[in-house]
């Protein structure tokens, strides 16, 4: 496993000098491999999925340095500490940590079911080790996690599979998908009992209650042809979770999970349309205010919007695209909000960079 590399001095280029007053914190790191996904495992560590020039995959868990919690820091740093890692000859298509469990769930191309791994918890080992594989009829499924459960989907002709991660077994098959719509599917848990499935091709939704197979609702999307689409939720609150739907053209819908008849919000964000071969755009709610959303995957930036009324761009993080030697086709691959501080995010990009940043308001 390779440690993160970088310059320990402040990155004093024109971009930093021009934008330094926009940030409370900005810490920039560089790895030596292409970054596909980055997920926080807790408030102080993250897992990163990378690949090398030969196509081999590598997952590393890093400890985030103490400097990201200091009051003010603007630095191009090299102190990402490697905790553990693993190599894989399989093509990994999705990676999610089980929060507070020090475990990792993976989906792999052309392999049915999901694989479960232990993250190293002590200094006796630095390896991420596989401890279980949950087999089901779904090949290379997309999945969403809620506590010790997972919901798996594959395509519109297959059922959704509910999995008990603690027992490492499938516990329920739900025939909730509309087989008349040919589409890749994306599931997201709303709360302990409900999940939503997005038809990525058209943006239509299925809302399913796991307690009853026939208790589901189909929400057609009137903007067919404006996709592909992605979906996310504001959290796992039973009472007031919001669901957001975003297309590659910038159309955005927000629903109250208690009332699906009409979206709470619908508008179009002023974003660049994705190249046809890109599908890794992401939308997240701010953990402190569901009127604030963040969007990435359209270009080398992370865009933050206030959608309390007409969409207003609150902030644009341009750090990934302003790294020395950055190629013009660099795109942000993932981003997340830190919940412990206001306006604080972490993002990764295909140009091997990871950046922690807190913007001024």
TrEMBL record:
GO terms for cellular component: cytosol; spindle pole. It comes from Clastoptera arizonana. It comes from the Eukaryota. One of its GO terms (biological process) is cytoplasmic microtubule organization. This is WD repeat-containing protein 89. InterPro entries: WD40/YVTN_repeat-like_dom_sf (IPR015943), WD40_repeat_dom_sf (IPR036322), Wdr73 (IPR042795). Gene3D superfamilies: YVTN repeat-like/Quinoprotein amine dehydrogenase (2.130.10.10). Signal peptide: none annotated.
């Amino acid at each position: 496993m390779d440690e993160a590399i970088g310059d320990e001095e402040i990155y004093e280029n024109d971009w930093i000098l021009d934008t330094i007053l926009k940030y409370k914190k900005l810490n920039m790191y560089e790895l030596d491999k292409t970054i596909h996904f980055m997920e926080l495992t807790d408030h102080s560590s993250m897992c990163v999925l990378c690949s090398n020039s030969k196509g081999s995959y590598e997952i590393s868990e890093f400890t985030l340095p103490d400097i990201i919690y200091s009051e003010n820091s603007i630095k191009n740093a090299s102190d990402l500490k490697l905790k553990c890692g693993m190599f894989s000859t399989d093509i990994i298509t999705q990676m999610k940590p089980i929060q507070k469990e020090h475990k990792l769930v993976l989906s792999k191309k052309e392999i049915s079911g999901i694989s479960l791994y232990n993250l190293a918890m002590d200094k006796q080992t630095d390896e991420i080790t596989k401890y279980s594989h949950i087999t089901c009829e779904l090949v290379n499924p997309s999945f969403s996690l809620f506590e010790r459960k997972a919901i798996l989907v594959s395509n519109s002709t297959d059922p959704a599979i509910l999995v008990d991660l603690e027992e490492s077994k499938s516990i329920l098959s739900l025939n909730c998908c509309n087989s008349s719509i040919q589409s890749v599917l994306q599931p997201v848990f709303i709360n302990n009992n409900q999940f939503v499935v997005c038809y990525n091709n058209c943006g239509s939704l299925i809302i399913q209650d796991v307690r009853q197979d026939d208790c589901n609702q189909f929400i057609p999307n009137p903007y067919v042809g404006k996709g592909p689409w992605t979906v996310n939720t504001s959290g796992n609150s039973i009472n007031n979770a919001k669901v957001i739907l975003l297309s590659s053209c910038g159309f955005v819908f927000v629903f109250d999970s208690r009332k699906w008849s009409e979206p709470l919000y619908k508008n179009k964000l002023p974003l660049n349309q994705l190249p046809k071969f890109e599908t890794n755009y992401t939308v997240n709610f701010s953990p402190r205010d569901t009127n604030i959303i963040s969007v990435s995957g359209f270009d080398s930036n992370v865009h933050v919007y206030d959608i309390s009324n007409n969409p207003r761009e609150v902030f644009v993080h341009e750090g990934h695209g302003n790294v020395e030697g950055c190629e013009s086709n660099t795109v942000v691959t993932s981003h997340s909000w830190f919940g412990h501080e206001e306006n604080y995010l972490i993002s990764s990009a295909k140009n091997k960079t990871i950046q922690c940043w807190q913007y001024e308001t």
